[in-house]
């Protein structure tokens, strides 16, 4: 079973657009969705209040939202990310995710297709494509 970590931008997009293919993630069999409280709060902060935040809460009923402590030691790969994206990769590693899905090409694009500390980093579309057949 895949343990898939959702970045804030994936949560945001799924809650913001009802017609996005990202919503398929929330119904995939044999997939356990996880995110961090940090990512959840970032998504909420960027969504317009009202129906969109309610939709995020509804979607996240199928997601394990976990608080993650900051890293105790230095993980050199974290230094290659913008400071605000470091907690995302750290949470995915800490939660032993098999995948980190992020649409943030600027921060994570150079890591797409790589596995770091057991976490395969990819855009959501690549993950979904792999589950089509």
What does this structure look like?
The protein has 133 residues and is an alpha/beta fold. It has a single domain (2-130), classed as 3-Layer(aba) Sandwich (Rossmann fold). It is built from six helices and six strands. The chain has helices spanning 8-16, 37-46, 51-59, 86-94, 105-108, 124-130, and strands at 2-6, 31-36, 63-66, 99-101, 115-116, 119-122. Strands 3-2-1-4-6-5 form a six-stranded mixed sheet. Helix 1 packs across helix 3. The two termini are 16 Å apart.
Uncertain ranges: none
- In the CATH hierarchy, what is the superfamily? 5'-nuclease
Averaging pLDDT over every residue, what do you get?
92
Name the overall outline: globular
**Largest sheet, order of strands side by side?**
3-2-1-4-6-5
| Radius of gyration from the alpha-carbon trace, in angstroms | 14 Å
| Gross CATH architecture | 3-Layer(aba) Sandwich
CATH topology: Rossmann fold
Provide the domain count.
1
Secondary-structure-derived class:
alpha/beta
Helix content: 25-40%
Order of helices and strands: EHEHHEHEHEEH
Please report the distance between the alpha carbons of the first and last residues. 16 Å
Regarding CATH, which class?
Answer: Alpha Beta
Number of helical stretches of at least 4 residues: 6
Number of strands: 6
Question: How can the largest sheet be summarized?
Answer: 6 strands, mixed
Strand content: 15-25%
């Amino acid at each position: 079973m895949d343990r898939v970590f959702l970045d804030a931008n994936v949560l945001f997009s799924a809650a913001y657009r009802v017609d996005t293919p990202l919503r398929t993630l929330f119904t995939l069999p044999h997939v356990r969705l996880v995110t961090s409280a940090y990512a959840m709060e970032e998504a909420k902060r960027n969504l317009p209040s009202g129906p969109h935040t309610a939709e995020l809460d509804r979607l996240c009923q199928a997601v394990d939202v976990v608080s993650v402590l900051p890293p105790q030691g230095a993980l050199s790969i974290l230094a290659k990310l913008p400071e605000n994206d470091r907690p995302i990769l750290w949470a995915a590693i800490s939660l032993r995710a098999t995948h980190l899905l992020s649409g943030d090409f600027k921060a994570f694009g150079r890591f797409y297709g790589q596995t770091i500390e057991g976490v395969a980093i990819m855009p959501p579309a690549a993950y979904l494509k792999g589950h089509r057949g």
